[in-house]
């Protein structure tokens, strides 16, 4: 049995039913638990007593013509439904947190899941000037350090340094 989804375009390939002839095309509007389908298109040539508005069709009598394109924000929408924080890209090319209301998933707006911020990398150093005038340095533990360097986790550049 075919596995149609809502929005699929389907073509009847055998037996007439509900006003549809072989080769007629329709759009799936509902899939029952048994896999039967209802179509959006109204069957105009069906008599009143044939229940033209909610005709259920056996999916085996159809083939897929076209499946709708995936929404460009599908992955972000799913993440948002599952509780992720969402950001949008503004006209100034910066990312901003979306508020508590549901986003309007406009295809012209760029959305993303808010990235988790990595903590700064902190390195403790022990710096010593030798009697010969050279400098000796070593990575140290916090207790013995006399210099603390803070690195940006993305660029790996020094953000701050502190003599202690």
Query: How many individual domains?
Result: 3
Query: From the helix content, strand content and strand pairing, which structural class follows?
Result: mainly beta
Q: What Rg is obtained from the alpha carbons, in whole angstroms?
A: 32 Å
User: Can you summarize the main beta sheet?
Assistant: 5 strands, antiparallel
- Identify low-pLDDT runs: 45-52
Number of helices: 1
Strand order of the largest sheet: 4-3-2-1-5
Mean pLDDT: 85
Oligomeric form: single chain
Measured distance between first and last alpha carbons: 73 Å
Query: H/E order of the elements?
Result: EEEEEHEEEEEEE
| Shape type | rod-shaped
Question: What's the total count of β strands?
Answer: 12
Helix content: under 10%
Percent in strands? 25-35%
Short summary of the structure?
This protein is mainly beta and 164 residues long. The protein has one helix at 74-81; strands at residues 9-12, 25-31, 37-39, 56-57, 62-66, 86-89, 95-97, 111-113, 121-129, 135-139, 147-151, 158-163.
